[in-house]
């Protein structure tokens, strides 16, 4: 029997400058590597063809989505073991090790050896879950609608399966690791309401309202009149049903509306939870200025946003190909310092910043547990490829948060009144004065 695993393992070791920290099983049944490690299974030579035609991250992602590679054993451990090969920290910034190899002349020789192992073949068709065509300028109204639809309009039943009854698709807030996902999401929504110092009769805007969980919580528990906006039609349909079912139709309005088209301010408070990652650097100044203009003097903004570490040379930043093609098209992450600066440039006074990085790792693990527990139903609702996309992106994101590859922050800002009165309390904690 041709020992494909040994040959492939040697090629990977040469490419990455060290042995693969996983056990490797090839399509011929051969295995190499540490016996106590998770197993990276290469089920088909087609996976090698994908890497030859699209070296690096995107080729690997396509092979995973197509089911040509998988992991047996603890997926989190496998991803954590692979992280040092994928991420290399030098002088603070994170660089993609795979991308650093691409211009290396060694790859030409390695590619020839991979081709000999894979055999002849045309480039495989990318799995259908990949978004390949985009229309219009980046972050134009039309293109943003298409990007949001790709990710969110895949079926409310699927999201209900993954997210659980809370239907909250953002980082929860865990008092302890023994808390439930539902309780942690309730606590996050309540924390946002308290930071905004919501009171009965106030008017709240929730930008990127998803399935309406924030506006429902604020109306039910804090007595506000709330407007939630989303550009996902499927989200809005379910959010409106939830509002009616909760008996809150007189206090909660759900709109299919881009944040750039909101013109009926002012609002007493604005929440933006897990939405700003979709805005992009070219539009972030517009986003910040628009929210500032929609707030009453003395009003507060709670901006809850994923962040990446800064780079010594920000011009080298490029988006994650897997995430961009399969998960969040046109999404962008920025350092939290950049976010704070842009909010301040728009006129906000930033009063508090809370990092809750570890909380997102716990949240993602909860979502992965829901997905894996209901795997057959998830595949039925979407497709095997789409389910594999979600499992990989959520598990890999959990590891990235755990290893401080990315973070998430709640930034509390205020539109200070003329004369400098912020309306903020003197001490942090009791958020209302």
From TrEMBL:
Spell out the Pfam families in the cross-references: CMAS
Keywords per UniProt: Lipid metabolism, Methyltransferase, S-adenosyl-L-methionine, Transferase
* Domain Polyketide synthase-like methyltransferase, chain residue ranges per copy: 158-399
Which CDD domains does its entry note?
AdoMet_MTases (cd02440)
* InterPro entries cross-referenced by the UniProt entry: CFA/CMAS (IPR050723), CMAS (IPR003333), MeTfrase_dom (IPR020803), SAM-dependent_MTases_sf (IPR029063)
Where does the sequence pass through the membrane?
none
GO biological process per UniProt? methylation
A single GO molecular function term of this UniProt record: methyltransferase activity
The lineage's top-level taxon is Bacteria
**S-adenosyl-L-methionine among keywords:** yes
Q: Which Gene3D superfamilies match?
A: Vaccinia Virus protein VP39
Query: So what EC number does this one have?
Result: 2.1.1.-
Give the family, as the similarity comment puts it. Belongs to the CFA/CMAS family.
Q: What is this protein called?
A: Class I SAM-dependent methyltransferase
The species is Streptacidiphilus alkalitolerans
């Amino acid at each position: 029997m041709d020992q494909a695993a040994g040959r492939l393992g040697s090629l990977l070791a040469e490419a990455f400058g060290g042995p693969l920290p996983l056990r490797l099983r090839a399509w011929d049944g051969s295995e190499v590597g540490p016996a106590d490690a998770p197993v990276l299974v290469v089920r088909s030579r087609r996976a090698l063809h994908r890497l030859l035609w699209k070296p690096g991250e995107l080729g690997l992602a396509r092979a995973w989505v197509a089911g040509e590679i998988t992991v047996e054993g603890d997926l989190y451990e496998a991803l954590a073991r692979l992280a040092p090969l994928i991420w290399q920290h030098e002088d603070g910034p994170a660089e993609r090790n795979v991308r650093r190899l691409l211009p290396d002349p060694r790859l030409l020789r390695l590619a020839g050896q991979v081709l000999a192992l894979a055999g002849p073949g045309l480039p495989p068709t990318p799995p259908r879950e990949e978004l390949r065509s985009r229309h219009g300028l980046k972050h134009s109204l039309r293109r943003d609608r298409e990007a949001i639809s790709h990710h969110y309009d895949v079926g409310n039943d699927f999201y209900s399966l993954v997210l659980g009854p809370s239907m909250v698709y953002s980082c929860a807030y865990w008092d302890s690791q023994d808390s439930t996902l539902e309780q942690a999401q309730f606590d996050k929504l309540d924390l946002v309401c308290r930071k905004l110092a919501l009171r009965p009769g106030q008017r709240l805007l929730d930008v990127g309202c998803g399935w309406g969980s924030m506006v429902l919580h604020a109306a039910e528990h804090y007595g506000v009149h709330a407007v939630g906006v989303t550009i996902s039609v499927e989200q809005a349909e379910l959010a409106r049903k939830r509002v009616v079912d909760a008996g809150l139709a007189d206090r909660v309005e759900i709109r299919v509306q881009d944040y750039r088209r909101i013109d009926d301010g002012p609002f007493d408070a604005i929440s933006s939870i897990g939405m700003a990652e979709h805005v992009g650097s070219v539009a972030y100044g517009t986003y910040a200025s628009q929210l500032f203009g929609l707030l009453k003097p003395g009003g507060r903004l709670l901006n809850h946003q994923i962040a990446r570490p800064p780079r010594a040379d920000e011009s080298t930043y490029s988006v994650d190909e897997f995430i961009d093609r399969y998960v969040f098209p046109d999404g962008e992450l920025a350092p939290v310092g950049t976010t704070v600066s842009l909010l301040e440039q728009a006129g906000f006074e930033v009063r508090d910043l809370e990092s809750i990085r570890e909380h997102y790792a716990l949240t993602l693990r909860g979502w992965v547990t829901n997905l894996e527990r209901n795997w057959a139903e998830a595949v039925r609702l979407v497709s095997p490829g789409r389910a594999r996309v979600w499992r990989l992106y959520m598990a890999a994101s959990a590891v990235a948060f755990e290893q401080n590859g990315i973070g998430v922050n709640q930034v509390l800002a205020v539109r200070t009144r003329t004369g400098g009165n912020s309306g903020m309390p003197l001490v942090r904690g009791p958020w209302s004065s």
